[in-house]
Amino acid sequence: MREISIGLIGFGTVGSGVVKILQQNKDILEARVGLPVRLKRIADIDIVSDRGVPVDPALLTTDAREILEDPDISIVVESIGGYEPAKSFILEAFRNGKQVVTANKALLAEHGPEIFRAAHEARVDIAFEAAVAGGIPILRSLREGLVANRFEKVLAILNGTCNFILTAMSENPGISFDEVLRQAQELGYAEADPSLDVDGIDAAHKLVLVLSLTHGIRLPVKSIYVEGIRRIEPFDVIMAREFAYKIKLLAVIISHGDVVEARLHPTMLPEHHPLARVDGVFNGIYLRGDMVGEQLFYGRGAGMGPTASAVVGDVIETARNIIRGEAGRVPPLGYPENWKSAGRVMDMKEIVTSYYLRIQAMDRPGVLSKISGIMADHHISIHSVVQKRRDSSGTVPVVFLTHLAREADIQDACSKIGQLDVVEGPLMIMRIEDENLA
Amino acid sequence: MREISIGLIGFGTVGSGVVKILQQNKDILEARVGLPVRLKRIADIDIVSDRGVPVDPALLTTDAREILEDPDISIVVESIGGYEPAKSFILEAFRNGKQVVTANKALLAEHGPEIFRAAHEARVDIAFEAAVAGGIPILRSLREGLVANRFEKVLAILNGTCNFILTAMSENPGISFDEVLRQAQELGYAEADPSLDVDGIDAAHKLVLVLSLTHGIRLPVKSIYVEGIRRIEPFDVIMAREFAYKIKLLAVIISHGDVVEARLHPTMLPEHHPLARVDGVFNGIYLRGDMVGEQLFYGRGAGMGPTASAVVGDVIETARNIIRGEAGRVPPLGYPENWKSAGRVMDMKEIVTSYYLRIQAMDRPGVLSKISGIMADHHISIHSVVQKRRDSSGTVPVVFLTHLAREADIQDACSKIGQLDVVEGPLMIMRIEDENLA
Q1: CB distance from B1 to chain A under 8 Å?
Q2: Most buried of A122, A426, B138, B416 (most Cβ within 10 A)?
Q3: What's the burial of A50, exposed, middle or buried (CB within 10 Å: 0-12/13-18/19+)?
Q4: Beta pairing partners, B400
Q5: What is the DSSP letter of B59?
Q6: Which of A:209-228 have CB within 8 Å of B?
Q7: Interface contact A150, partner B, CB < 8 A
Q8: Per-residue pLDDT reduced to its tens digit, B237-254
Q9: How many angstroms separate the CA atoms of A43 and A59, rounded?
Q10: Given B293, B325, B334, which is nearest A300 (Cβ)?
């Protein structure tokens, strides 16, 4: 073996970043692997547009089979994203005995079991550090460095677009979600169709992958509670600030023995919480292991450089494994398939946490008593009530912070409160992660 | 192979933590490895004292050879610390074909090349994640997850004792180093002989290991600039606060092409720097990679649980490698021996940074002009001067913050200033990591 040849399928942002690193850091990569790492071929449907990285035109092809069928190529980097043709390419790479590196969280979250099984059967490896939190080596840390721990709690900011929007709303009190989204789109931090990000789907894909590593539980995204950030109003941001909270879109994993909470939604966090300071497009993962205690990982969760850094990190690890002769040795240790499931995911209705409730209600005597009466009937203990301003329409937003309550009770109570004729419009329910409210 | 047998040499704090994890998390470790991990033997000179973990007395021995010569044992955990007999035990384990896991930073920093060469020759592995930053998987992240990057900058808080002391001094303005040290000793956060910690030696050992991974440079500790925290006075802490700085004992690694700065000393950091919020016994590593940008790793850097978490993480990785049949396959990829050296470490006199200078001077006309004249002669540009209080003795502390200056110029100027008859006692020089002073 004189070199490790890789083929790149997908010459978009991540693919260009991979090419850039392989060129720019060629010397250190060779030193750290022990052999040259050679990019032999790049496939994309568009081989004409300038990507800002110099590439020998002879490397380019529009036919992915020129990579998948090349016996010289031992590692295939899939960076096209989405379900098809990415999935077919990956499965064919496996059949041809090639190792695969990918950042494709959607594909792995939805079709992970099938893909990991195929890798296992073909005795090859699939590496996917870049699928979660971009350049932060969190998956490897969960699987290796922290492997001795039971993970009691993981709270994670995994979508840079949402965090950018929430940070901007927090720093410019009064600005609307729509206005910030428009700015994010202009700056390139949000897609033209932002729903994958702002509706929480992208972060939920990542949550599914993290949960498989922390608890050995594989779930389809649709069985997890997912709520995006569209419904957050400037008023909620202002109230959060008054309570010394920040609003973050959080992936939440909390262990209770054999049962685990796994949910994704906007969450109020105390300002002094380490994640409250993870702002802008940054990602952050806070975790608590039974042995290691608290940890925080912080860094850029998206973008060309950070994502490509993780992809090339996986390429290097895979190359090292090929050189050592261990790539794809079954069983693929470290994959969730080998982990014993810690049990089931808790039904959302069973969870117990604290809540922020915003209720638009008539400003007249007896209203507060009616609302709080319903809460009492549902065993909801109120920590504080704030009635913020008088509205010309005759209704005012009233905000409740609750002590620990059951989600089912909150949902039932809110449904009843919403039916009161003194209450207007839908209620806003936001969960709070604050041990002081317990 | 039906199980992985390990032997533990050293039943102190870390060793007890290892035993505790192997007992308490037996089920998840087996699931994550694929085979049972069995603690077969524990050697210590004291096998009588209660460690707070239940152990079958039949496992205990005072003779390390019962581990080193046991053909069943494939992984030896060395947790006695110090140079001897730890080194001899490790070398004998290698000769007997055993993999080694250790947290022994002093030994690896001082005798790393010899130990790694011996592992290489014996075709076994040595793992040492626990040697730096306790439970934070930073070494593995540098070597694997972030391996695609050139490391432009690493700033790290690597000694929990010093960070505890500096945090307490910052939170109780006016309290002396000696007083806080005494408290730390009472709380068990500092040793009876604290010099390994407070003089920066322990953190320097860790810096040497980090530098070998980030830059492939192996240096003895004595060739690195190391300054501890004993000379910091309450006045310095109060001044830091006025300038919106925090004082941290930092390991500093900064790349300049083929030359790299590597130094360890108290450093003033802006309060908004991510490391400024790493308080108490916590460790933190801030780094900037050319591709990945900024990252922060934060967690407990010492103590039974966090250190044992890292040790057992290495045990699990080693066990996986044994099962895959790849443990110790030469060359030991990922070890610094395989890395191309990025060049030489910069002479301390060559470094350029900003400085905090505290000068005890007579409070009379012309003094400031004399001092600042000497600075001007040495090309030192002053950012600000603060004369804080009048002292009954007739001298006052005068504080200068400088723009970027050469260390050699600062040392020369301070030496000249110290000789002025209007200046009393030694000057305090502290480096500042603040891009706004550039």
Answers
A1: no
A2: B138
A3: exposed
A4: B357, B385
A5: G
A6: 216
A7: yes
A8: 999 999 999 999 999 999
A9: 8
A10: B293
Task: Identify the residue whose tokens are 């470490």.
Answer: B345
Q: Cα-flanking dihedrals φ and ψ of residue A281, to 5°?
A: -80, 5
pLDDT truncated to tens, each residue of chain A (438 aa)? 799 999 999 999 999 999 999 999 999 899 888 899 999 999 999 999 999 999 999 999 999 999 999 999 999 999 999 999 999 999 999 999 999 999 999 999 999 889 988 998 898 999 999 999 999 999 999 999 999 999 999 999 999 999 999 999 999 999 999 999 999 999 988 988 999 999 999 999 999 999 988 988 888 899 899 999 999 999 999 999 999 999 999 999 999 988 999 999 999 999 999 999 999 999 999 999 999 999 999 999 988 999 999 999 999 999 988 888 777 654 444 455 544 455 689 999 999 999 999 999 998 888 999 999 999 999 999 999 998 766 666 889 999 999 999 999 999 999 999 999 999 988 999 999 999 888
B324 touches chain A (CB under 8 A): yes
Residues 6+ apart with CB under 8 A from B341: B215, B216, B217
Other beta carbons within 10 Å of A65: 12
DSSP code string of A304-321: HHHHHHHHHHHHHHHHHH
Q: Which residues contact A341 (CB under 8 A, 6 or more apart)?
A: A215, A216, A217
Whether chain A has a CB inside 8 Å of the CB on B15: the answer is no
How far is it, in rounded angstroms, from Cα A106 to Cα A198? 15
ipTM of this predicted complex? 0.92
Q: pTM of the predicted model, to two decimals? A: 0.94
B314–chain A nearest CA distance, Å: 7
Residue A179 makes CB contacts below 8 A (sequence gap 6+) with none
Residues of B with CB below 8 A from A34's CB? 331, 333, 338
Domains in chain B (CATH in brackets) are: 4-134+304-338 (3.40.50.720), 138-300 (3.30.360.10), 348-437 (3.30.70.260)
Is A299 in a helix, a strand, or coil? strand
Distance from CA of A94 to the nearest CA of B (A): 19
* Strand ranges, E, within B371-422: 382-387, 395-402, 405-406
DSSP string, B287-355: EEETTTEEEEEEEE-SSHHHHHHHHHHHHHHHHHHHHHT-TTPSS-TTSGGGSPP--EEPPGGG-EEEE
B340 is catalytic: no
State whether residue B292 sits within 8 Å of chain A by CB.
Answer: yes
Cβ pair B292:A300 closer than 8 A: yes
B145: which chain A residues are within 8 Å (Cβ-Cβ)?
Answer: 129, 136-137, 140-141, 310, 313
β-pairing, A395-402 with B4-9?
unpaired
| Angstrom distance (rounded) from CA A339 to CA A73 | 31
Cβ–Cβ contact B381 with A under 8 A = no
- Asked whether the beta carbons of residue A34 and residue B331 sit closer than 8 angstroms, the reply is yes
How far apart CA A212 and CA B175 sit, in angstroms, is 48
- The DSSP string of B122-159 is HT--EE-GGGSSTTS-HHHIIIIITTTS-EEEEEEE--
- Choose the mutation target among A19, A153, A283, A291 for the interface with B, i.e. most B CBs under 10 Å: A291
The verdict on B271 touching A (C-beta cutoff 8 Å) is no
Helix, strand, or coil here: A424? Answer: strand
Q: pLDDT tens digits for B103-144? A: 999 999 999 889 988 998 898 999 999 999 999 999 999 999
